[in-house]
């Protein structure tokens, strides 16, 4: 016997829903009354569902069920061998949304626990938030944990360097440079601050301070490799300093290699090579000893925003919404062996090995989120959300990592 299942949408006035009285009605909207009278209690909450307003009984079991989109399945059952046909209704709910609720971010979401979007700054079984460090007034451009220090250091476009007590999470000291800080790293006892046309260097053990001149324009990226400090600047030139015995400064400018036609915005070191990414969409590969350019990699169609070396691979990200995995060939060149695509431009990359020896890639995107992927599969392990774009990522000891946007 054929059966057509029709869903009635009209409301039966004056009839109370028996399932609602038992606290287990799962129809939304239900054609029967959810109340002893057709007039709801004025102070009771209302929730919006699929462009229709329905009344929820306070503290009812239905109110506590997450209202994700569902699909109803109607199954014919003739197992009894008779003429009658039983209809079973099954509901399959989709997974909760993996997007943060923008109303919850502003503390005014009306849906509460019934909201289909996340009411959390992250998701992922192995993630937990430790602290918020909120003192910077503009974007955080670098976070550092110098060796031998119990302080966390951060630099910002607001012109300040802040030192945070790692035990209390409070700001212990502030250095106001009065100029924009556009890059910020540490190496051993040194903290390096990239500003316009210079790098400021502090030794946290001796409290000595030096200014390294040479760059032209804003210093946008820095890295230390082969006992050399490299700084990429707005004019497309990379400045390199090595240790010096001079009493005036412990750093000596040894070379300023050029090749990029626009600003150098990211640097990394690996396999005796220096890699630089630029606003000219290219990656240049330099010999770490001679600082001679060995090749130029052209694969991105927008600004190359971040570079990291992972085992024998080079990973690069770009505003073109891709992460590319480069592999060295037998001929000594590099070729793209895998391209991972994001919905939004990629701002920064970082990586760590977790307690289970899994390689985790952190990927900051222009949708104000940081995606966590397990390498080499690129399977997503979680996501972190922020109010603004996360410009800086820093890995700490014991599984700690830090993200910096407008608040550190």
SSE blueprint:
Elements: H1 18-21, E1 46-49, E2 52-55, E3 70-77, E4 86-93, H2 102-105, E5 122-123, E6 140-144, E7 151-156, E8 160-165, E9 171-176, E10 183-187, E11 190-203, E12 208-225, E13 228-233, E14 238-243, E15 251-255, E16 264-270, E17 273-278, E18 282-287, E19 293-298, E20 304-310, E21 313-318, E22 322-328, E23 334-341, E24 346-353, E25 359-365, E26 369-375, E27 379-385, E28 392-395, E29 401-404
Antiparallel strand pairs: 1-2, 3-4, 5-27, 6-7, 7-8, 8-9, 10-11, 11-12, 12-13, 13-14, 14-15, 16-17, 17-18, 18-19, 20-21, 21-22, 22-23, 24-25, 25-26, 26-27, 28-29
What does this structure look like?
- This protein has 408 residues and is an all-beta fold.
- The protein has helices at 18-21, 102-105, and strands at 46-49, 52-55, 70-77, 86-93, 122-123, 140-144, 151-156, 160-165, 171-176, 183-187, 190-203, 208-225, 228-233, 238-243, 251-255, 264-270, 273-278, 282-287, 293-298, 304-310, 313-318, 322-328, 334-341, 346-353, 359-365, 369-375, 379-385, 392-395, 401-404.
- Strand 25 (359-365) and strand 26 form a beta hairpin.
- It is globular and about 90 Å long.
- It starts with 17 loop residues before the first helix and ends with a strand.
């Amino acid at each position: 016997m054929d059966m057509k299942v029709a869903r009635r949408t009209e409301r039966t006035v004056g009839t109370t829903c028996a399932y609602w009285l038992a606290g287990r009605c799962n129809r939304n909207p239900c054609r029967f009354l959810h109340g002893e009278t057709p007039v709801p209690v004025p102070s009771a909450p209302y929730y919006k569902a699929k462009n229709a307003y329905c009344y929820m009984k306070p503290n009812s079991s239905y109110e506590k069920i997450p209202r994700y989109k569902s699909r109803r399945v109607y199954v014919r059952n003739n197992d009894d061998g008779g003429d009658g046909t039983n209809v079973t209704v099954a509901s399959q709910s989709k997974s909760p949304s993996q997007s943060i609720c923008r109303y919850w971010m502003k503390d005014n979401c009306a849906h509460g626990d019934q909201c289909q979007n996340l009411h959390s700054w992250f998701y992922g079984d192995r993630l937990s938030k430790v602290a918020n460090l909120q003192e910077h007034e503009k974007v955080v451009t670098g976070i550092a944990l110098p060796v031998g220090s119990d302080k966390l250091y951060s630099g910002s476009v607001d012109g300040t360097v802040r030192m945070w007590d790692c035990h209390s999470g409070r700001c212990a000291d502030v250095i106001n440079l009065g100029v924009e800080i556009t890059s910020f790293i540490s190496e051993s006892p040194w903290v390096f601050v990239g500003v316009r046309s210079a790098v400021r260097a502090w030794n946290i053990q001796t409290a000595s301070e030096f200014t390294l001149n040479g760059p032209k324009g804003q210093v946008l990226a820095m890295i230390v490799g082969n006992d050399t400090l490299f700084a990429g600047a707005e004019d497309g030139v990379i400045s390199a300093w090595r240790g010096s015995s001079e009493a005036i400064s412990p750093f000596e400018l040894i070379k300023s290699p050029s090749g990029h036609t626009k600003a150098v915005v990211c640097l990394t070191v690996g396999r005796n090579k220096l890699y630089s990414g630029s606003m000219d969409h290219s990656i240049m590969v330099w010999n770490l000893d001679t600082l001679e350019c060995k090749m130029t990699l052209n694969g991105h169609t927008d600004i190359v925003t971040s570079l990291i070396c992972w085992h024998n691979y080079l990973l690069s990200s770009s505003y073109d919404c891709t992460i590319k995995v480069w592999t060295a060939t037998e001929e000594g060149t590099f070729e793209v062996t895998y391209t991972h695509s994001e919905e939004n431009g990629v701002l920064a990359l970082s990586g760590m090995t977790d307690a289970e020896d899994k390689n985790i890639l952190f990927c900051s995107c222009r949708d104000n989120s940081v995606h966590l992927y397990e390498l080499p599969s690129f399977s997503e392990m979680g996501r972190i959300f922020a109010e603004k774009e996360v410009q800086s990522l820093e890995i700490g000891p014991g599984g700690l990592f830090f993200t910096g946007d407008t608040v550190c």
